[in-house]
Amino acid sequence: MEERARSCLLRSRTVLEQDIKASYLMDHMVSDTVLTTDEENSVSSRATRREQAAALVDLVLQKDNRAYVSLYNALIREGYGDLACLLQQDLPLISPEVQKSYSDGGTPYVKMVLIEGGVPQRPVVFVSRTVLINKVRQKLYKLKDNPGWVTVFGMAGSGKSVLAAEAVRDEALIKECFPGGVHWLSVGQVDMPGLLGKMQSLCFRLEQKNNSSARRPRSIEEAKEQLRFLMLNKYPRTLLILDDIWDGAMLKMFDVQCRVLLTTRNRSLVDSVSGHREEVEVESSLDQNKALEVLSLYVNKTVRELPEQAGSIVKECKCSPLVVSLIGALLRDFPDRWDYYLRQLRQKQFRRIRKSTSYDYDALDEAMDASITVLQNDSQTLYKDLTVLKKDVKVPPKVLSILWDLEPEEVEDMLQEFVNKSLLFRDCSQKPYLYYLHDLQLDFLVEQNRDRFRELHSKVVRQYNQFYKMGPPLSGNEESLYWFRYLTYHMAQAELSKELCELMFSLNWVSTKAQIMGPAPLINDYLEYSAILDKENSTVREQFQEFLSVNGYHLEQKPFPDVVQLGLAQPNSSEVYRQAHLRAQERASGGGVFYLDWVNKSSLESLSHLVVKPLQGSILYACFSRNGQKIASCGSGSILNVFKTTTGEKLLDIQAHEDEVLCCAFSPDDRLIATCSSDKKVRLWNAESGMLNRTFDEEHEEQVNHCQFTNARRRILLATCSNDGMFNTKLWNPNRQSSQNTMFGHMGPVNHCCFSPDDKFLATSSNDGTLKLWDVFSANEWKSIDIKEFLGDQDEELETIVKCSSWSADSKHLLCAAKNAVFMFSVETGELLSEIRTSRLSTVQFCDYCPSSKLVAVALSHYAVELWDMETKKKITDFRGHLSWVHCVRFSPDGALLLSCSSDETVRLWETCQVHISSAVSLKRDSEVLFDGAAVTILAADNMNRLQVRGGTTGDMVLQSEAQESRIRCVALCPAPLAVALGREDGVLQTGRIPAARQVLRSFSFRTLQLLALGVRNMLVALGLDTGSVKVLAVPSGDVLCTLTGHLRMVLHCQFNADGQLLISSSEDATIRVWKWRTGECRVLQGHTEQVRRFLFLTSSPSSPGLLSWSYDGTVKVWDMATGDRVQDISCHQASILSCDASANGRVFATASTDKTAKVWSLQSWSCLHRLTGHQGCIRSCCFSRDSALLATGDDNGEVRLWCVPDGSLLRICSSGSKDSMDSLHGGWVTDLHFSPDDRVLVSTGGYVKWWDVEKGEALQTFYTKGANLKRIHVSPDFRTFITIDNLGILYILRRVE
Question: Which residues contact residue 682 at a Cβ distance below 8 angstroms, ignoring those fewer than 6 apart?
Answer without folding.
Answer: 674, 675, 676, 695, 696, 697, 700, 704, 707, 718, 720, 732
